[in-house]
Amino acid sequence: MARHLKLLVQRWSSRVFSVEVDGAPRYFGVREQLRGEPVPPDVFSEVQKQDRCYSLLVCSGDRVTGDRFHWELRDRLQTQLPPGSGLRSMSSFIPDQKGSLLKGYFLQSQAGNSSLIEDILTDLEQRNPVLVCSYSQSEDGQQWTQCLWYQSEENPVRFCVVPSETPKHHPSVLNMINSDVFYSLEEACDVLKQCGDIIPETRSVLGMLPSSLDARRKPDFPVIVIEGLDATGKTTLTESLRDSLGATLLRSPPQCLSAWRGRFDREPPLIRRAFYAVGNYITAEQINQEASKSPVIVDRFWHSTAAYAIATAVTGPVSNLPHEGAEVYRWPGDLLQPSLVILLTLDPEERKRRLRSRGLMKTDEEEELDHNKLFRLRVEEAYRRIVGPACTALDASPSADLVLQQALLLIRAKCHL
Ligand SMILES: Nc1ncnc2c1ncn2[C@@H]1O[C@H](COP(=O)(O)OP(=O)(O)OP(=O)(O)O)[C@@H](O)[C@H]1O
Ligand SMILES: Nc1ccn([C@H]2C[C@H](O)[C@@H](COP(=O)(O)O)O2)c(=O)n1
């Protein structure tokens, strides 16, 4: 462990630290020596003089264990820490270096709580793959320093905390490929296989995969995917299209995974997204079989998996998303390509009205869409940026019948049906 940490901190001063404040990242760096006037980064602007701050970064070599530990750590800290600890998500990364992201938490200890908090942190660091740093303020309140806890307490190396420029990419973008969004069945299966011992259900999920998949096989009949946020009318439209076109209706995740979906929805992003990715490949095989007999309509597919994953991994405004044309928006090479993807778009107020009138239970991400405008905007924009195929937007605000007619026009024009 100590060797692993030593390697990690070798490039410590090239790292940028990012703390989530009001749903958007704030950045700071550390230097061995301060050059020029000290300017405290704004992360510390509201911290009282007598308070200390701490960061915990998860640094497990095994990503499944690391992600699960990071996920559980929030609950653990929330229950153990005294009120007023201001727990926030944080991360550390080397700008532009893919795979360099470490995830963790940032907290404050108010005077009077410090020994309790230090006991919790010491215990955590001794038993788990976590690197703890403490932050304290100089006497004159002008300078913050960071100290790595794993070193001997008698002679800790202190780094000066300095402001950092906003990096070109949101930190999460550095670790997104094959962590949040999977680009091959093999990568997604690898994650699920690693979970076999901790989540026995993964064996049943993997058992649903066909023995071979051929993404290059061209379906005889058109395959039309309907995408959109919840309550935009996908179920209504897909059922009407099935009836109008004499098509087969499929969905992703497929029916055969329904029993395990709730289980994977409670897992951290790495495992949850791998589950949905595998679901797309199982649906792809069903499409292959059905599209030799009739047109196929699919309720959600790859666009949903990628758009929700990207929009969740990134925080803050739409400008924090990976830029248009970035690698993360490309279609996986080994996944069947639909003939047409229709994205239903709807005014947020009308969507809310439909949600209320339907009154069904919602997943955490659907709940988040309701409460967090920025999240909704990021999902919508990510949908629009995905290519290979890109989606065609369709205004879903007219009556169900009119939306159906418009969809049929698009399908006839594109798929010659
Ligand atoms: N064009 C429309 N005009 C008015 N109401 C509609 C229209 N289309 C669907 N609805 C109603 O809006 C609600 C949501 O529609 P639907 O269940 O089809 O959406 P969905 O996109 O499948 O949702 P989810 O993804 O959450 O399953 C339902 O009550 C449905 O009757
Ligand atoms: N192919 C899919 C389908 C769904 N998801 C995820 C994205 C959302 O969190 C949620 C929405 O699904 P719904 O409740 O409308 O069935 O499921 C996905 O990642 N990939």
TrEMBL record:
InterPro entries recorded: P-loop_NTPase, Thymidylate_kin-like_dom
Reaction catalyzed: dCMP + ATP = dCDP + ADP; CMP + ATP = CDP + ADP
Keyword annotations from UniProtKB, A to Z: ATP-binding, Coiled coil, Kinase, Mitochondrion, Nucleotide-binding, Pyrimidine biosynthesis, Transferase, Transit peptide
EC category: transferase
Entry EC number(s): 2.7.4.14
Gene Ontology molecular function: ATP binding; dTMP kinase activity; nucleoside diphosphate kinase activity
Family the UniProt entry places it in: Belongs to the thymidylate kinase family.
Residues passing through the membrane, by range: none
Places the protein is found: Mitochondrion
A Gene Ontology term for the protein's cellular component: mitochondrion
Protein name: UMP-CMP kinase 2, mitochondrial
UniProt keyword Transferase, yes or no: yes
